[in-house]
Amino acid sequence: MTSNLQKVDATKTSLRIPDSSSTHSAESSEKPSDSRLTAPARVIASASTGSIPTPRPQDRWRQRYARRIWFTDLLALIWVIYGTQIYWFGLGNAEIAMREDHRLSDLSYWFFSALLIVAWMWVLSLIDSRSDRVIGSGNTEYLRIVDASVRLFGIIAIFAFLLRVDVARGFLLISLPVGVLVLILERWLWRQWLISKRQSGQYSARVLLVGSESSVAHLARELQRTPSAGYRVVGACVPSGKIASTIEGTDIPIMGNVNAVDRAILATGADTVAVTSTDELPPDKVKQISWGLEAGKQHLVLAPSIIDIAGPRIHTRPVAGLPLIHVETPRFNRGQRVAKRTMDLTASILISPVLAFLAISVRLSSEGPVFFRQTRVGLGGKEFSMIKFRSMVVNAEELLAELEKQQRDAGNEVLFKMKNDPRVTPIGGIMRKFSLDELHQLFNVIGGSMSLVGPRPPLPKEVERYADHVHRRFLVKPGITGLWQVSGRSTLSWEASVRLDLSYVENWSVVGDVAILAKTAKAALAPGETAH
Fold first, then answer.
1. Average pLDDT, the chain
2. Is the pLDDT of residue 54 over 70?
3. Which GO molecular function annotation, any one, does this entry have (predicted)?
4. Where are the domains of the chain?
5. What is the C-alpha to C-alpha distance for residues 521 and 379, in angstroms, rounded to an integer?
6. Fold category of 204-307 in CATH
7. Which residue, among 229, 269, 274, 252, has the nearest Cα to 60 in the 3D structure?
8. Fewer beta carbons below 10 Å: N end or C end of the chain?
9. Interatomic CA distance for residues 281 and 259, integer angstroms
């Protein structure tokens, strides 16, 4: 018996198997108690003792979503192409006429339509219109659909001319715009479904943040503020590497230091690594992280500490082997100004008949003038007289000082907004709810002091309290509507209002104006709780 025990002890010694009591003592002295750690952090803590974390299964939502889009794209194109064919030619066996001396036989439009559908689906795939990098937000997905469709029909027209094939022009002229509109509508519906899923944390990239604690916390808050963007933060690696804690102000667990990125990816199942700052990272660390990612399944994102700058102003240009990010300063050339002015005047003329009806309603509903004039600050910081339909009692300005004292907890230190303002007349309440009191500012638009879309025109007393950077909103004309109005209106804090206005100034475009006008029309028809 004694000899057998000695053999077992000798075997333990030769294999260096630690005794259970000594192992427990060592673990308790080297890492925090497991009860204090989140599940991913426990895996990282155990990995520090030499064990290998078990990889989490990859969520293949990208492939599932792309397959669904592919299928609905196909159904949409079948409906459009064959529907157009039946509308143009009827149910008969129409054929494409070949010109004389052509070696090809006549081609049935039923077969040509099938070829067109296959080619359309193919170019949509070639241009990556179903890529997870463009779905869910932004206009890139829609622009790629338009680009691929126009190129396809251009190629068809060129080949028809070279091969002397007479394809019915009406068939093509109807199929192209209708097909593009149906595809965009279908993708938009899918996007609404995707956004609803992302609100609950599904169908989103699992992001591991790497950088200093302050930069990680900043980016984490921004991503959590907009879950529809599709980035769900699952952990962070910071220089301190305090595994038992979370990032300050968030519930994001710290998965270790910047050298634990590989283990953190395995523990959290992250498919995206976002580097928030490089100040505290070792040299070549970003390159090492990129080398450790699985091609096609895991992505590296560099997040510069600059926000609210749109893609057209950002360009990456390699200089001396360095991928330098160039941020262009906001520029408004003559063509852009002419386009914006043309859109302002055209829309003003179309909407102007509504003004007469509103003027009569205001005049008959309460005593006082129809119009209300107020001094506002516009382009270049110059004051102008803004015209609105009167929606308040005549002595509204006299009552303002007392009401301002009552609004201390609204979260907006500069703008005065009250949900149930007693100064508003009954017809004024209806006009405000549907933003009809703003329509008479079309006279300001026609006169050139305002635009349809732009920053909110502030009062002079508000401008006196502006910080220096807020004055950048005066680089463009103020607008009847803007980002602030379609993004929360009266519920926004002062910081959020300023951020939206400056974002518009920095990234203005005609396409953006059209999108804001569309959202304004939707908000006017269904105003919700933010309109008052």
1. 75
2. no
3. phosphotransferase activity, for other substituted phosphate groups
4. 61-198, 204-307, 334-397+409-525
5. 25
6. Rossmann fold (3.40.50)
7. 269
8. N
9. 9
